[in-house]
Amino acid sequence: MGFQGGNRVMGLRHRYYVGAFLAMAVGLAVSLAAPLLTGLEKPLNRKPIKVGVLHSLSGTMAVSEQTVADATLFAIAELNTAGGVLGRQVEPILVDGRSDWGYFAQKAEDLITRQEVSAVFGCWTSACRKTVRPVFETHDHVLFYPVQYEGLERSPNILYTGAAPNQQIIPATKWSMDHFGQRIFLVGSDYVFPRTANEIIRTQVELLQGEIVAEAYRPLGATDFTEIVAQIVETRPDVVFNTINGDSNIAFYQALRAAGVQSYDIPVMSFSLAEAEVQAIGADLVAGDFAARNYFNSLDTPENARFVQGFKTLHGTDYVTTAPMEAAYFGVKMWAKAVEEAGSENYADYQSTLLGQSMRAPSGIVYIDPGNRHTWRPVLIGRMDPSGDFDIVWSSGRPIRPAPFPGFLTEGEWLAFLDGLFQGWGGRWAAQSDQMASDSSP
Amino acid sequence: MTPVDPALYREPKQPVRGFSLAVEIGVLFVVLGLVPLMLIGRQYATSSEEQIRAEVSRNLAVIADGRAGRVEAFARDRLRDVTVLANTPLVLDAMAPERIAALDPFPAEALVRSREAVGAHGLYLVDPSGDILFADDDTVGSGTPVGQSQQPAPARGLGSLSLWALTSVADRASTLLEPQMSDFVAEAGFVTAFVGAPLLADGTVRGVVVIRVGLEEILSVLADLTGLGATGEVLIADQAAAGAGVRLYGGLRFPDQAPPDLRIGALDPAAAPFMAALSGQRGVGSGVDYRGEAVISAWRYLPSFDWALVVKVDRADRLAQFDRLRAMGLVVLITVAILVIVLAWLMARAITTPIQELEQAAERLAEGRHDGQRQDSLRQDSLRTDTGAREIKALARSFNDMATRVRIYQTGLERMVEDRTAELRIAKEEAEAAARAKSEFLAMMSHEVRTPLNGVVGVAELLSRRSLDPDSRQLVSTIRQSGSALTELLNDILDISRIEAGKLSFEMRDFDPRALVQGLVALMEHAARKKGLSFDLAVDRDLPQMLRGDPARLRQVLLNLVGNAVKFTETGGVKVEVSLLAEVEGTVELCFSVRDTGIGVPKDLRDRLFQPFSQLEAERSARFGGAGLGLAISRRLVEGMGGEIYHVSLDPEPGSCFVVELPFSIGDPEALCVTALDADGASPGSHCPPLRLLLIEDEPVNQQVLLSFLEADGHQVTLAEEGRSGLELALTHSYDLILTDLRLPGLSGIEVAERIQAAQGGATPPIIAITANILPEDREACTAVGMAAIVPKPIRSAELLGTLAQVWAAAGGEVGFDLAREEPVTLVPDSDAPIFEPAYLEDLIDALPPEEVGRLVEKGARAIQDSLAALLDAPSADATHKLAGAAGSYGLMALRFEAKALEAVLRGDDVEASGRDTMETFAPRLQQACDQGLTALEAAWKAASYK
Fold this sequence. Notes:
Order of helices and strands of chain A: HEHEHEHEEHEHEHEHEHHEHHHEEEEEHH
Number of helices of chain B: 27
Structural class of chain B: alpha+beta
Number of strands of chain B: 25
Radius of gyration of chain B: 75 Å
Oligomer: heterodimer
Helix content of chain A: 40-55%
Strand content of chain B: 15-25%
Helix content of chain B: 40-55%
């Protein structure tokens, strides 16, 4: 009995020692791991950071916006692959705006207040942006807007990663006048961007002693361009400035070529024609025409190569990257850098690090202007070659300072002009067309 | 519980393996103290370094943002300045087409004021075609109008680079319709940039107003080192030619170490932050600067000028705080570590000291050292119970209790063992005493019985020699036969009692086995023939001449077997066979078998045949007489001699066979043999001529028997009643032969023989011993003192006379005396015995310690007085015998003599004396002898003890 008791005590003693050393080892491990697990000032927070992705995944804008949504999600996926932001995963909340601006506003409200997202990436049309803008301003939140637009806007709650007029329209107009001549034909979809863009072009052309031969509009989604093409054929301008958006471009080009207008005869300078539309139209129809943009799929930079490669790996080789996609892509990256630098996903905290933020995007160096929250971007003019790629025929070579309000009119004049459009469309930012519903499919 | 030697439990001293408790506790304390300390220290150091690093990084980022903002603001402000200028009526009017066309002079003074107002170095008015119409520059001259068709020459102040920058700004402004700014160009010692805005009026572009700005404000931004400490710097660089690295824009804090030409190669690590910024990145990180110094830097891209802005501080400078912290932490850590180690050591000692004491005490206890000199003081050996933790105190107390218990237990155990040993010793002594008493009783009884038996047998013998009428002869014969049977019985009892008492011993001497067996046959043949039995003897021819062993015992055994065979056989015969079983190297093994045709042994009794007092024997004894001890004695004797005795059944034939197998060593054939004795009658030629004999014998019965036998044989016998008187007679008179009893009062027969030998040497007459105890040791003693033979008691005339004749013949057969001449002398005890014989006391003093002697003397004196008193009170032979014994023991010879004399009177032996002396005469003599003797004894003892 005595010896058994002794053994038991020995066992107990051993157990105490083992326990002590285990406790010590656990303490050691915890204290060594602690710096890895916790931020220095922040308690452990592994919850993912939510961001809203608000685009039309259905309706007439879906064909364009789906690509931007894909680019946004691709950028987020890249972030997550690289370890997330602030060591946390980024959780995209993808919302379908249904090509309905009121619905956009409603979902934006929902993302901000209910989902408590860090930022919203979304919208395509200016009409959409202008509709959701009050939501972001009311909640002091931020919308990353990835599409080139007509300018004439300044909001502390919208970050414009697309081009302002002076980063696309104005340089392209000057270049066209230098290369093609003074007589210019303007054609566009009947909504705020083409209208405003054409107003800027008209003003500039007139200041530069050029001539606007004609100015013609069709509603969004319209497919009937025979009248306009006939007008072009009749007036024979030096160059046609095309601000048609969406799948209407197909009808326009088909009508144009059907009418025998060739690029060497009357070149077309497109401002909203992206690679996706070119594919839809057919490269042979577009070959020889020009596009003024801030990004081309064929850009030869390491960043673009990575971007295109990564995106194609994910979505297939047929999926071409476009300027709005690129803008959406680096917008996400800018947001991530700002959040990292600020150490917080709250807009109030990272706003200051977002302003002045810069990076090398696929299109080149981009920089967020702290004053007008537009993006300094390079400007490019490309010419469609028969293989479907754009040859860069002109480049600004460095980021161009964004000027949302072109200086040749006062801001008051510009806003009055916008107001006129708004009133003219019956309190909307686009012309309502009977055709629109029937022509909405690509 | 058996008390065991603690040494049995003590294992060989092996060092106990393992760490000492002190080391264990010490190490644990150190670990316990240091591990958390180190963890905390490390944690603290890491987090504080992180924090400082983060703080420094944040600071740098903020400073970089501030400086970048100022540079950008500078550009924005210049654009605004020029836009403002472009919208002033002064400028617009100056470029009005009608005025240009009219070649109106420019309002130079107002333009200069405007230029100065915006802080520009120059102001140029350019028409839409790119011609500079007006120039005002603080370096090339102010207010100088330029002709419409003339381009301002580089010689006029602006270099070609500057001019190109100016015209390109003017071109862009006039076509893009936005204010434009050129990059800074370095030319002719100037670093300058041009900012232009279109002049728009009436829907036309009138021209461009361009101002020239210097680098001063930028440099002032660089020179502002607020918040950058002693080593911080703000640097601006632009891209040098492609792949050629970067070019710094002055404002270095350490111009001595500035890189040559302010260029840093693209592969230089110092260029890394600049390159990163120029590629559009912004960030904070560690690296080296152009001096090769480790720095922390923040870099920003400046889009307005396509510049890189780097804000950096020396790592050493910013992290000096952390290094101080680390050094301090290290000092604290070392101090605490030392403290912890010292504390751990002290605490380990404090905890383990009582345990060590306990361990040592336990070891002492285990080794039994506590029962040495410390035994008497339990208190000193005990552990202190007032130090250490509660458990230790309790342990010490328990240990003390345990040790005390162990001691008490051990002491008790020892005492118990002592007590038991003493008890056992007493019991053993008592048992031995009882056995001794029994043996002595038996010996005494047989002796006492034998003495009268001797008388009976002897007298019967004497009677048988007389001429008697046939009836009387028949009666005497019956007496003789009864006497013989009784003697045998007594011998048996004596033997078995002696054997039982373990006093069996065997002698080794040479003897002739044939003679022994033949003598035996001769002895028994007569009885066998009388019963009409045949008696055969067969002796192996190879039997050795002489054997060495105990012939008397062998004879006794064989006699018993043959006697039984004769006794239990009515018809048929007895056959004795002696055969040689084996002979190996001087030893032989003999087989003696005695076979008869008698009644045999019943089967159920065979296994108890050799047990004493067995039923078989008892039954036989009842039928045939005898003590029934014969076979038991035989077996003991045979086994004692290393042999074996067994019974062989002859079934279905009648009778039985007893076999004795015995080993012997072969003896010397020349050896003398004196034991051959015949039972009945003397051997032929055994008669010797009348001799002068001295007989020393104290027993009156034996005296009479012997005297009768010897005198009947015609010898002249002088009787001495004790050794001393016998010795005197032997020395003073001449005898042919001396017969002496071995047990005599005073001098024993052995002593008498010895003294005679000593006194007379070769002239000593042969001496024959007479004894009842023919023990080997007696025989040896007899032989040692030169005695010629031994005659056993009880005396048989044939034995006595035969031995006498043999001895006489051996001695040469001389007849040295004339029977007629000599008168027989009856020796009476010496009446002149000394009052006190000191030899006895001296013996005591030699043998015993003085106090014991003293006690004995005292006790003896009292015993003598008591005995005397008892005797006087109730006179009896026993009382006198006792007194005589006591007196003799202390050398009171006179008293002993008187007591013996009285005893003789009282026993009625001394008929003469009884007539002369009565109790009245003996009492005063006894008293006197006693008083004188005791006085002398005490005097002698006192004298001896004073020595």
